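Ticket #4471: structure export looks truncated?
Reporter: QA, pipeline team
Priority: medium

Steps to reproduce: submit the single chain below to the structure queue and open the exported record.
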Amino acid sequence: MKKNKISKDWKRKHKKDQFFRQSKIEGYRSRSVFKLIEINKKYNFLKKNSNLIDLGSSPGGWCQFAAKKIETGKIFAVDIKDMKKIDKVKFIKGDFQEDNILRKIELYFNDRIDIVLSDMATNTSGNKTLDSQRTGDLCIKAMSLSLKTLKNDGVFLSKLFMGEIFKEINSIAKKSFKKVAIYKPSSSRKESKEIYIFCKGILKI
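Actual output as written to the record:
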């Protein structure tokens, strides 16, 4: 099947998707916001005074929902892609792995923070094993940043794909956090291998 035919089929399915339609009705920028809504309903971690970092934030659906829940805290969003302005959200375009981004995070909060979110995934290559590995690497790097920035009782939430790297990520998480849980939201497409890892409470090593 030709690539443009596959692309058209995907777009047709996407438009029929109930979460895609609902995101348009409610004014969210992406259907993925419902994953965060569901995960927060289960673990109840977004508080009105939370200080939060959203890694790979564009187009901004997760920030939109976080901004509704957070009243007095701060939200800092980072992405290599552009993101249109969202009220109560500080956005920086850049790679979160760069030292200057970490310095900007430290200056913005001037303290340890409560939550690090990551819905990042690499562009798909067609090779599921490679895609899983690359997105898993992003998860590990995001976790590393969270350990540098979170409070002792802080929360780290990240997307990853089931594959060989899952065991490595789970092992690192269990050595770093008091609570580690794996969750697949109902809004995640059934055919997708994506899951989310929820971590809370940094272990003192």
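Status: closed, not a bug. The export was complete when the record was re-opened. Leaving a note from the reviewer for reference: Helices lie at 3-16, 18-26, 33-43, 61-69, 99-109, 128-149, 165-176.
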